[in-house]
Specification:
It contains 12 helices and no strands. The longest helix has 26 residues. It is mainly α and about 300 residues long. It is an enzyme of class 2 (transferase). It is a multi-pass membrane protein.
């Protein structure tokens, strides 16, 4: 099973996030008070985690720091986290740029598919357990950031709306859920697979999110928006975009399969790519979540 400390941190963070969401919704007409809710619940969560791992508060913060930098005899995690931070910094700069020009295109929105995919692939190759932990923590953080934005909690709400609403997708309602679906979609295979650390071996299914969303859906959107002419009946999606998605998924999965010890069959790769492509053509919402799930189950 997962390390007790990592598992405990995920449980505490998830419960704290749910409590904050519930309390904030109850207090949504008094957004300024929500800041106090955040402070109180996070403080309680820190004490709860320190109790679970049987450490004092200072020792708990030292433990969290050690979790980030990894074992003292290895620099792998430090290099990986530095790479992740570089991707985050590039994404923030890109956000500021798109906000400054006042509009976002399909290509702009798919940029984040690339950065999240790069973070995921590097995590799988270098440190899957730590990536599992971070996936759950990022999900909690993304949820809380969207909560602050949606409820317009001062002083965060105005800034978040100014920089994030421009990336609102046609599939989004008042809630900006596309980034959360993207995170869950790409990391979902790892989140549900990384249970036995000692025997964890990457399978092709682990890369289902990258194949379906990071590669396939991105190519479908970019090619479809630029060259899409022939529309699917009853859908706004184009045949040209679907062909691009099918071809790109096949290339990615077949190439990746060459480096997988426990490889998947070619027929399962073809079926997964076809089903994901057809699903993308006719699904109008939550595709960042549904496409990886379908691909993962088939692979």
């Amino acid at each position: 099973m997962l390390g007790d400390e990592y598992g405990s941190l995920v449980v505490v963070a998830t419960v704290a996030t749910l409590v904050i969401v519930a309390a904030s919704w109850i207090l949504r007409h008094s957004p300024i008070i929500i800041n106090a809710v955040f402070a109180v619940v996070i403080s309680i969560a820190i004490f709860a985690f320190s109790s679970l791992v049987n450490r004092s508060i200072p020792e708990t913060f030292e433990l969290l720091f050690r979790m980030v930098i990894g074992p003292q005899d290895s620099w792998n995690r430090v290099y990986m986290v530095a790479f992740w931070l570089a991707n985050v910094a590039i994404s923030v700069i890109f956000c500021a740029y798109v906000s400054s020009i006042g509009r976002s295109s399909t290509v702009h929105r798919k940029f984040f598919h690339l950065t999240v995919s790069l973070i995921y692939i590097s995590g799988i190759l270098l440190d899957p357990l730590f990536s599992w932990l971070c996936a759950w923590l990022w999900l909690c953080i993304f949820t809380l950031v969207e909560l602050l934005r949606y409820l317009n909690v001062p002083p965060w709400g105005g800034v978040l709306n100014e920089h994030l609403l421009i990336f609102k997708d046609a599939q989004d309602s008042e809630l900006l859920l596309t980034p959360i679906y993207l995170l869950v979609g790409i990391f979902l295979p790892l989140m549900v697979s990384c249970w036995d650390v000692g025997s964890f071996q990457p399978t092709l299914a682990i890369f289902a999110g990258v194949a379906a969303v990071g590669v396939g859906d991105s190519m479908a959107a970019i090619v479809g928006s630029k060259f899409g002419v022939t529309k699917w009946k009853g859908s706004k999606k184009s045949l040209e975009g679907s062909i691009a998605m099918l071809f790109s998924m096949l290339v990615f999965l077949l190439t990746t399969n060459l480096f997988i010890k426990d490889s998947s069959s070619t027929i399962s790769i073809i079926i997964a790519s076809l089903v994901a492509t057809l699903a993308e053509a006719f699904i109008n919402s939550m595709d960042n979540f549904i496409l990886p799930l379908v691909t993962y189950l088939i692979l």
